[in-house]
């Protein structure tokens, strides 16, 4: 009878408190650390009790008499919870939850009591395992897209670049793991006449989305072939240009040497001097200015 009264009491308290304050939403990431916030008016003799409101309530963490009390803690939270003990005296009753699981989502109540009174805070926890990678591979006339370890259940969609006028035919399989995570895989049939398309697979959840792209092997091979042809042409042009430049340079030097020899044999022009500049390969003839007499 006492247990029934206790359950009814907690139900009434939860109902009216929810009407007055509402829940505070906290989003946690699977397998990571999450903080459930809670605070109270600092006073003597603080006691903190965290409870998950499911199946009559399960004790998540308790603190009183100046230390943690884990003897009544639910087995699912064993070794994964802690309080900021050095901050309890200043009114911080937040819960640190490590190794977050999908099963941790739900409603929690933080019950703080001290010589100043009692305060309740309600937290609604949601858990997400975002999309990390999208894998694509080719298998004969099909493209396989897959992504693992996601929560909640994701959506998978196909598209092409550029957009195709043909309808894309695919089959998708979703599997649930022991950790309550979802693995998703989809098989897309590739039409024989769509050889110039890039296939795009997008996996989406409420938290994020990831996209993978697979270029059609025929398109990729053709592009690679064009690159090789262009490279061969450039090399051939370079090979032809080198002898031409060398021959032109030799002719230029011979012409210069012939000019110098003629000048030395015949002598410089009248009233002129022969000068060879060191910084260039040009030969100049300088004519002195005539003195102007008045």
Describe the structure.
This protein folds into 3 domains: 2-128, Immunoglobulins (Immunoglobulin-like); 135-215, Immunoglobulins (Immunoglobulin-like, Sandwich), CATH 2.60.40.10; 220-284. The chain is 23% helix and 37% strand. The protein has helices at 2-20, 217-266; strands spanning 24-29, 34-36, 47-52, 58-64, 67-68, 81-83, 95-97, 106-114, 117-128, 135-139, 142-150, 155-161, 169-176, 182-189, 198-204, 209-215, 273-276, 283-286. The protein is built from 2 helices and 18 strands. The longest helix has 50 residues, at 217-266. With 294 residues, the protein is of the alpha+beta class. The strands form 5 sheets. It has a 6-stranded mixed sheet with strand order 1-9-8-3-4-5, covered by helices on one side. The model is unreliable at 1-20, 220-235 and 262-294 (pLDDT under 50).
Q: What tags apply to this protein structure?
A:
four-stranded antiparallel sheet; disordered C terminus; 3 domains; single chain; Immunoglobulin-like; 23% helix; six-stranded mixed sheet; 294 residues; alpha+beta
Question: What would a concise description of this structure say?
Answer:
It contains two helices and 18 strands. It is α+β, with helices and mostly antiparallel strands and 294 residues long.
Question: What is the fold's blueprint, element by element?
Answer:
Layout: H1 2-20, E1 24-29, E2 34-36, E3 47-52, E4 58-64, E5 67-68, E6 81-83, E7 95-97, E8 106-114, E9 117-128, E10 135-139, E11 142-150, E12 155-161, E13 169-176, E14 182-189, E15 198-204, E16 209-215, H2 217-266, E17 273-276, E18 283-286
Parallel strand pairs: 1-9
Antiparallel strand pairs: 2-7, 3-4, 3-8, 4-5, 6-7, 8-9, 10-11, 11-14, 12-15, 13-14, 15-16, 17-18
